[in-house]
Amino acid sequence: MVSSDKKRIYTVEEYLALEERSEIRHELYRGELYAMAGGTVNHNRLTRRVANLLENQPALKGCGVFSENLKVEVVRDGYYCYPDVVVACHPFDLRGTNQIIKQPRVIVEVLSKSTALADRGTKWQRYRKLPSLWYYMLVDQYSATIELFSRIEETDEWINSLYENGDDLIVLPRLNMEIFQKDIYNGIELHPEEEDVQEDA
Known about the structure:
Strands 1-3-2-6-5-8 form a six-stranded mixed β-sheet, covered by helices on one side. Strands 4-7-9-10-11-12 form a six-stranded mixed β-sheet. A two-stranded antiparallel sheet has the order 13-14. It is 24% helix and 31% strand. The protein folds into two domains: 30 residues, no CATH class; 146 residues, Alpha-Beta Complex (tt1808, chain A), CATH 3.90.1570.10. It has six helices and 14 strands. Strand 11 and strand 12 form a beta hairpin. Keywords: Endonuclease, Hydrolase, Nuclease. Pfam families: Uma2. GO terms for molecular function: endonuclease activity. InterPro entries: Nuclease_put_TT1808, Restrct_endonuc-II-like, Uma2.
């Protein structure tokens, strides 16, 4: 992400109005806009795959699964972003006219070369402070690897689990959900990041 206008400081209201008419999505951080970079075909496929797998979970009745185009309020009046996939269950978030998810239960980011450091670092440090968030999932688009951060109930502590084999079962017990790792990557041809670097050179 690149700051699109460092001299201008936007209010949340101005940001929302701009996003309604902008062809480019922006994140808002401390009043500054950051244009979001485009993704790869695999990024898009993995995002849609995860969203579909979550949406087909019987236990998610009464919740909503949203991908890419819905903002999350990470810090009130301070940080608004577009995660790749979000699961929300609060009635306020599920209103048809709503533009911002304020109480996400699950956030999923598909890792790319340009976002991996932030998704694992600064963005994760902000996400983990959301009281409503129970799970944070990182989906690697270069290798069949899933990282899942799970909040320990009634605490601010998190457990990190790694899934690298097709038969690994990704379990989100607080939402009564299970997904096989292979179902996320099935039929998607992965390209190691090193190959992408050589092709871009």
